[in-house]
Amino acid sequence: MTVDPSHTIPVSVTGAFCSLNCPHCGAHYLRHMISVDEIPALVKKGYRSFLISGGMLPDGSIPFEKYYEHLKELKESHGLLYNFHVGFQKSKVAKELADVVSMDFFGDETVLKSIYGLALTPQEILDIAHFYENVVFHITVGITGGKITHEEKALEILSQETDTVVLNVFIPTPGTKFGKSFPPDLQEVVKLFEKARKLFKRVILGCMQPRGEYRKKLQSELKDLVDVITKPVGGTGEFKGCCAFIGRG
């Protein structure tokens, strides 16, 4: 299956603010998200699917509470679907309103610390995930500036928790600390997908993929290894929305 994620609109509850300034993102991606107040206008245009996210506070939480009533009213009155990207927190707002919860996973606490500055073990991340229903785990391959580090271990741990995994691929983003890095070695990435194929019932290539020739080669190499390709080269996608909605079952 192929997926066009453009029909799920990303929303930031913090605007362009994030306290963490992670080396792979640096709040760059928040700048392209809309505010909660802009949702009604998009609903009028026919959109019904939204990714609710935002910048993290120093403890890894995202402050959804301020918008609880507004998000709830919009969901109930228009039948909206929400994918909450929750950071690393137990959010009562997300637990109540989310149709699916997206969580990043790390198989090594030192790698997580080097990226987010947070001290959480893999088990502590899982303990947070167990607070929710319909969690879809994401692993960003090569998140440490294009280097493969914890990913195999992460796959092994998650295979005991779920039958679905979303694998993204690190993008060197201009203006970030890793902006001058390179994407991970393509053949190393393929090997990780081969491992994932053996461990999981459903393997999804997520929306984070380097552009250009890398993406073309990546999707060509993975076409027989994954169940879902997000942002297919030269195509629009059979499913319109976040791949996490497929991953929830």
Strand content: 15-25%
- Tally of discrete structural domains: 1
The counted number of beta strands is: 10
User: Cα-atom Rg, whole angstroms?
Assistant: 17 Å
State the CATH class: Alpha Beta
DSSP summary: helix tally: 9
Concise account of the structure shown:
The chain has 249 residues and is an alpha/beta fold.
Secondary structure blueprint with pairings:
Blueprint: E1 2-4, E2 8-12, H1 39-44, E3 49-53, H2 68-78, E4 81-85, H3 92-97, E5 100-104, H4 109-116, H5 122-129, E6 135-141, H6 151-158, E7 164-169, H7 186-199, E8 202-205, H8 213-222, E9 228-230, E10 239-240, H9 244-247
Parallel strand pairs: 1-9, 1-10, 2-3, 3-4, 4-5, 5-6, 6-7, 7-8, 8-9
Helix pairs in contact: 6-7, 7-8
